[in-house]
Amino acid sequence: MLIDTFISQKFRFFSFLSMLLLVFVHGYNLHNPYLQPFTVVSEPLRVTTFTEYLFANGLFRFRIPMLFIISGYLFALHDTKPYNERIKKRLRTLGIPYLFWSAFALLLTFLWQQFPATAQAVKNASIDQMGDNRPYTEIGIGGVLLRWLLVPVSFQLWFIRNLLIYNAAYPWLVKAVTKAPAIWFSIVGLMWVSGFGIFFIEGEGLLFFTLGIFLQKTSFNIANAPSWLKIKIWAPAFLISAIIKTYLAFQFDWGLQSFLILSLLHKLCVFSGLVTMWYGFDWLVKGCMKQTWFVWASAFAFIIYAMHVPLINYSMQVVFNYFNNFPYYRLLSFVFLPSTILLICIFAGALVRKVSPAFYSIITGGRGLQ
Predict the structure, then answer these.
(1) Is residue 55 packed enough to be buried (19+ CB in 10 Å), middle (13-18) or exposed (0-12)?
(2) H-helix or E-strand containing 197?
(3) CB atoms inside a 10 Å sphere around CB 334
(4) What CA–CA distance (Å, rounded) separates 24 from 335?
């Protein structure tokens, strides 16, 4: 079964938009930069702090579930092809780019560690997933290999890693979704709400990837919203839940109460955001996809995703060192640095694609060649 042209455009639009917003989320620069649904803020409530949290940990948080839904839907759309053939293709289109960009981040980090000013920026960013921000020369080859294969310094690559696992598990996931949907979605829904995860299996990815499968297999009408998904209901819920959650994040200390309330508000914000964005912005999709420059730029969505971390994290520390005396420097950094990184990624992608299309195809899994 094929999808119509406009739905295909929506998939491309929201995939690109999600990557753009991801850069801004990773440009969040308050004192505790590692965002969880239940993250509380120890800083005073000001315009700068409120705005950053509202967008980075509220209004922009629909993007990863959106990408998982799209991925699940498209994977299910083509499951008439042999399973082994599809997995081999996914190893090429996901596995190889994962290894390349993980190595790229390691090399970039190593180079920054060679000079005192940039080495301090790496240390201050503290994005190592192992919690060990020593120079790689001290960590040793074993630690470097572990980071390359399983816990990349480009922490956003967890999405590719988990997506590859879900693709491999597709035969079992599609059976669960089609044979016992009530039981399956009750389990993964509870995992999502509770934040439960073990190793590389987590509720958010499982829930929304299999929701994409379910929507495709049941021929759910994704073009028009049913009565229970009307924008007039979910758009206010989206905005109000994000605002309330943001305000409460500044009132709570860490504890069970804050975990429960902020987590539930976060889930409401994510779900209402998905509904609002998908069904409420057709006018924006149509307008943007008519623009030649936008369609051209959208081809570099994967490069933006793969390249922006750890570049934005290290660059943010450098900006702070030189501009911390400017009024609203953090809010301005939150706006302008991600915008600059986006342009750098697009320029780099366009240059590599022009110079060596074959190499570009390898490092992007064949994405964005047109």
Answers:
(1) buried
(2) strand 197-198
(3) 23
(4) 7
Query: What residues does 202 pair with on adjacent strands?
Result: 197
CA 171 to chain CA centroid, Å, is 25
Token digits of residue 245: 């959650």
Long-range contacts of 180-185 (CB under 8 A, 24+ apart): 181/214, 184/210, 185/210, 185/211, 185/214
3-state secondary structure of 351: helix
**Cβ distance 104 to 154 under 8 Å?**
yes
- Nearest to 214, CA basis, from 168, 166, 176, 269: 176
pLDDT tens-place string over residues 13-28:
999 999 999 999 999 9
3-state helix, strand, coil in the chain (%, to 5): 75, 0, 25
- Report, as an integer, the average pLDDT of 123-149: 93
Helix (H) or strand (E) holding 201: strand 201-202
Q: Global pTM? A: 0.95
Query: What is the helix (H) or strand (E) element at residue 307, kind and residue range?
Result: helix 301-323
Q: Residue 111 corresponds to which amino acid?
A: L
Question: What are the Cα distances from residue 199, in Å, to 47, 150, 158?
Answer: 38, 11, 11
User: 227: closest CA among 178, 275, 266, 282?
Assistant: 275
Distance CA 286, CA 368 (A): 20
Residue 147 and residue 132: Cα distance in Å, rounded? 11
The C-alpha angle with vertex 364 and arms to 94 and 73, in degrees rounded to 5, equals: 55
Coil, helix or strand at residue 107: helix
